Amino acid sequence: MAKGKGALLIKLLSTAGTGYFYVKKKNPRTLPNKLQLMKYDPRVKRHRMTWKRDAALVLLGAAGCALTLQAARWLRQRAGRTSSARCGGPVDGVEGLIGNTPLVRIRSLSELTGCEILGKAEFLNPGGSIKDRIALAIVREALEQGGLRRSGLITEGSAGSTGISLAMVAAAHGCRCAVALPDDAASEKAALLEALGARVLRQRPVSIAHPQHFVNVARRETNAHGANGKVGGSGGGGAVFADQFENLGNYRAHLATGAEIWAQTGGRLDAFVSGAGTGGTIAGVSRYLKARDPRIQVVLIDPPGSSLFNAVMRGVAFAREEAEGTRLRHPCDTITEGIGINRLTANFLQAQVDSAFQGTDREAVEMAAHLLRRDGLFLGSSAAMNCIGAVKVARKLGPGHTIVTVLCDGGHRHLSRFHSSEFLASVGLTPQHCDDDLGFVA
Fold this sequence. Notes:
Elements: H1 2-14, H2 19-26, E1 38-41, E2 46-49, H3 51-78, E3 103-105, H4 107-113, E4 116-121, H5 131-145, E5 153-157, H6 161-172, E6 176-182, H7 187-195, E7 199-203, H8 214-224, E8 239-241, H9 249-253, H10 255-265, E9 271-274, H11 280-292, E10 297-302, H12 308-313, E11 355-358, H13 361-375, H14 381-397, E12 402-407, H15 421-426
Parallel strand pairs: 4-12, 5-6, 5-8, 6-7, 9-10, 9-12, 10-11
Antiparallel strand pairs: 1-2, 3-4
Helix pairs in contact: 1-3, 5-6, 10-11, 13-14
């Protein structure tokens, strides 16, 4: 019914500046004298428009066209088909599907906080996460510099998402991929990597100083193929260590993410909130947004076991779990995957962060359940933690502000841990908050 009314409205308005005046031109006497747009010219024996009436016609016609466009916009919104940057012509290969993700208004969080809380839907990238952006940037750079060619090898130490994205982009360029993965990452991630043709090297979580840390294992894998551990190695097709934590191509790729957010909000945002693992997202987005408007607040949300909260708020990168006598041989400080770290990476050092909040696993689990129940959004652990950060910032700023965060990935690759009722019960994190409020956010 709404569609029929909207179509009728558009049809009526579209004739306002043209057809209406055409009818009056044919029969000018139907208009009152003061409104007549035509004047009879006895020399040519026909009605002729004066320049004043020409001007009136142009102005009224333009107004009719403007109303037509507004009506079309209203109709699309009523039909739930708002325009998107992703709706265009054909794109060239899988690369063309990366980026330009929609910005979604998270209804429940917006209504409950009185702020506009918007999430960048990065789970709509072809590889399923925001890491597609940096994978594309790193592979392109390696190909352009000659360190990587077809049949070459790209390696990475990853908690899962970057490895998946690299495997996808590498396959699109005829390259091979090897990924060193922590053995506490969700099993779906290892399965996805293998399905994409990557070789998976699972490692237990240890300090970055340990030779068996997954990043160091990936670096050695590159060296074993005749490369020097950086972009530009030699060998059969070349071998490249992506080095997402220290490779500044990571944060540079997210300057485009910041540009998209700026364009999608029309520059009208008060804060950007994100967790950090490599630090690339918060660095690239913060640098772009701050360059456009220094008043925009950039806020870090940090999971348990990470030292970045202390680095931002106290100037010391130290986590309580790192204290003497508390470090576990096989640590599991958090079930939130993809964010949180105990060192300052080269990418994070590029970030312009104003303040930070800490989140808990309990908050993230409850937020994921809330968003699925209230909004139909099925999100991964880091995306849920980012939404916790958005709510905390909304409470700090007060109603009427616009806050943007990143929905890094979907819940589909977290079924064996973060979205497993059995696993959550085993660690005492079964969702308990059933009310439709945000009482679970401290």
